[in-house]
Amino acid sequence: MEANGSILTNKYSEGLPGARYYGGNEHIDILENLARERALKAFNLDPKVWGVNVQPYSGSTANFAAFTALIQPQDRIMGLGLPDGGHLTHGYYTAKKKITASSIYFQSFPYRVDPSTGIIDYAQLETNANLFKPRLVVCGGSAYPRDWDYARLRKIADGQGAYLLSDMAHISGLVAAGEQSSPFEYCDVVTTTTHKTLRGPRAGLIFFRKDKESDIEARVNAAVFPACQGGPHNNTIAGIAVALKQAADPAFKTYAKQVRANAAAMASVLVKHGYRLQTDGTENHLILWDLRPLGLTGSKVEKICDAAHITLNKNAVAGDTSALVPGGVRVGASALTSRSMVEKDVEVRLDCLFD
Ligand SMILES: *Cc1c(COP(=O)(O)O)cnc(C)c1O
């Protein structure tokens, strides 16, 4: 927050380090290069194979820039459906409306989780990909409690000659800490926000393979600026550099491990008391609590928890038809872990709700 609120707010620097459209950027260049170096280091990436653009203002703009770089307007994309845990920007539309730029400017078709297990139905995705023939397969989600089968997704994308993009926004802190599979081995491009489990300022990153033939590097950089954005927010980039330094510290690994342990503890207390979780548990930082067996909606539980100063949010669970009155809530363990809670704290607090 100190970096984010610093005088770095005041400098324009369109372009990239060493190639700006403004003078007076010698310190900004050092800053942006430092952020780039730290981003590659945080995810163990070889700078000869991977590059990164640290200028996206946020996750949504990072995704739109990445799509702009990889495919043409009206090309076909497949992403995890919003009611199945995907993100709005992965092509979401309804029967009546194209909801985000990702469905307005591209043709999209969602893939789903298996409603009986809550796990992504990779077989159905493969079948539908054979029919729909996407140019881009997007993986990653905002409400998916399980790890991703990147090898399988790569195979499905390769079957169509499609790009594979991972949007690891929710889990990037866990990926940096080695607490979740890394998408980098299998993906062409990886986007992320920097403010979820990565615990940085509100911004986005786009990682790309430095493949000389397809020149994804130049396409991503041109898509961020000037195609989708103007001047980078250098104060935010400074905040990203700080967050990435923290993420490289051994203490961050301990934190990420604890986030997962706390989410698992939350899951096991609820399951012990007979409640239903989507996928029966979690492998990451969040749980999806299916309230339908209780005859409750997520909207009601969110309101009641607000009254008790418990902050969570209503969320669709597999098989839900309405996004306005969804059947579940999404609960994360990151913030309470930052406040030093461990499994015992989670268990005691949850258990006493049921006494
Ligand atoms: C949060 C999120 C985004 C969007 O990030 P904003 O910074 O809110 O624009 C994109 N993708 C996923 C998977 C997310 O969880």
From TrEMBL:
One of its GO terms (biological process) is glycine biosynthetic process from serine. This is Serine hydroxymethyltransferase. The modification N6-(pyridoxal phosphate)lysine is found at K196. GO terms for molecular function: glycine hydroxymethyltransferase activity; methyltransferase activity; pyridoxal phosphate binding. Residues 1-347 form the Serine hydroxymethyltransferase-like domain. Keywords: Methyltransferase, One-carbon metabolism, Pyridoxal phosphate, Transferase. Interconversion of serine and glycine. It comes from Naematelia encephala. Belongs to the SHMT family. It is an enzyme of class 2 (transferase). Pfam families: SHMT. Pathway: One-carbon metabolism; tetrahydrofolate interconversion. Its cofactor is pyridoxal 5'-phosphate. One of its GO terms (cellular component) is mitochondrion. The lineage of its organism: Eukaryota, Fungi, Dikarya, Basidiomycota, Agaricomycotina.
